[in-house]
Write a structure and sequence with these properties.
Length: 401
């Protein structure tokens, strides 16, 4: 069975085409600058080589058509025709409280995804466009929705409810939803395999640190708490997002500085975090380079980033009554050894001790970075959200009558 995995963003469509017998990625790539007459397709082959092309792509439907035409192209396609696409798996950002698992997309499911648009106005509409485009381009082919929020639906009320009037939850759906669920799920399931333990018996702390960063406490194999909240703005320090702040700062920005709601939104989401503190960049590679060159503000950004992470690790360790392992993933988690070292420094009190040599050599690969005697294991596990989307899609499609 071959499955097309799609991730439709505001101006991009990312894809992977996966053969499920071997879980081989036959081709992958992205169409960027969707909505312009100079959209760029980058299509990568199994051997790592790629081709690029520029064309007029007014919308997501045209972008997906381009992807399909590339997959079946006479010269560089990987399948002879589109009948080989057995199913499509979509990343859908927000499933609200309506979806705790992946689902086959039906008219009823589409209505529910539409109802979640208010919760993710910047993401769900594009995911929705991708679903509609596939229905037209691949008629009769089953489509599955895999939600970023679904994994976190197991959180208990003590974790997901804010201390606001209860009516805010009842009437306005204001609660913690959590994001990056597919990634937290992938790395935690993988950790169980590496540690040779039953998933349902494990307590894990998973740190997804890319441009967006979130940390999850997984208790007995289920999401118990997570740092992103009603939106992906809460929690850890991120590339351009502030994470946790005192909400009263927003009143001051409005009343004393005269900023509008959208200006504050922009400031907290796009000009804060590593970028805001350092004044240099949102890119951790650049910040680390500048820090090594002696830049004080770069060092401050790194220190605040790691301190926040450390606080969350300890909070979740305590909240779960202990953890078997801590897992680092995504761009920073997989590659930035100095960040992992700093975040785990002086954490012997919770059984954490990093083997510095192992940590330094663990770049973009899977492995243990804690010392042999450490009670709490520390692992680096490169994330793979696409394979979870493909596996869920396969599971659902195989059970269709
Ligand atoms: P996204 O959330 O967009 O998927 P990624 O998971 O690709 O992001 O992570 C992007 C972040 O990872 C950036 O801050 C980038 O600087 C950081 N990163 C990638 N490689 C390295 C590296 N070798 N060292 C330090 N940081 C890295």
């Amino acid at each position: 069975m071959k499955i097309l995995v799609l991730n439709c963003g505001s101006s991009s469509v990312k894809y992977q085409f996966i053969s499920m017998t071997t879980e081989r990625v036959l081709a992958k790539g992205q169409v960027e600058r969707v909505g312009t007459d100079h959209a760029v397709l980058t299509h990568c082959f199994e051997d790592g080589k790629n081709i690029k092309s520029v064309s007029d792509i007014p919308d997501h439907a045209k972008a997906i058509e381009l992807v399909i035409n590339t997959l079946i192209h006479a010269d560089y396609g990987v399948i002879p025709d589109k009948s080989e696409i057995r199913a499509v798996g979509h990343r859908v950002v927000h499933g609200g409280e309506k979806f705790a698992t992946s689902v086959l997309i039906t008219e009823e499911v589409k209505d529910k995804i539409r109802e979640c648009i208010d919760l993710a106005p910047l993401h769900n509409p594009h995911n929705f466009r991708g679903i509609n485009a596939c229905a037209e381009l691949l008629p009769g082919i089953p489509q599955v929705a895999v939600f970023d929020t679904a994994f976190h639906q197991s959180m208990p009320m003590i974790s997901f409810l804010y201390a606001l009037p209860y009516s805010e939850y009842q009437l306005n759906n204001i609660r913690r939803y959590g994001f990056h669920g597919t990634s937290h799920r992938y790395v935690s399931e993988r950790a169980a395999k590496i540690l040779k333990k039953k998933y349902e018996t494990l307590n894990l702390i998973t740190c997804h640190m890319g441009n967006g960063c979130s940390i999850t406490a997984i208790k007995n194999g289920k999401s118990f708490d997570t740092s992103m909240g009603y939106t992906p703005l809460e929690g850890l320090v991120m590339g351009t997002r502030c994470g946790d702040i005192d909400p009263a700062i927003i009143f001051t920005m409005a009343s004393k500085q005269g900023l509008s709601i959208s200006e504050i939104d922009n400031l907290l989401n796009k000009h804060s975090g590593l970028d805001g503190i350092s004044g240099i960049s949102n890119d951790m590679r650049e910040i680390l380079k500048q820090m090594e060159a002696g830049n004080e503000r770069a060092k401050l950004a790194v220190d605040i980033f790691c301190y926040r992470l450390k606080k969350y690790i300890c909070a979740y360790y305590g909240a779960m009554g202990g953890a078997d392992a801590i897992i680092f993933t995504a761009g920073i988690g997989e590659n930035a050894a100095p960040i992992r070292e700093l975040a785990c420094e002086n954490l012997e009190c919770i059984g954490v001790k990093i083997d510095k040599t192992k940590n330094k050599s663990m770049i973009g690969q899977e492995g243990l970075i804690s010392t042999k005697s450490a009670k709490t294991k520390v692992l680096v596990i490169p994330t793979n959200e696409e394979i979870i989307i493909a596996r869920d899609t396969r599971y659902i499609v195989e059970r269709l009558k």
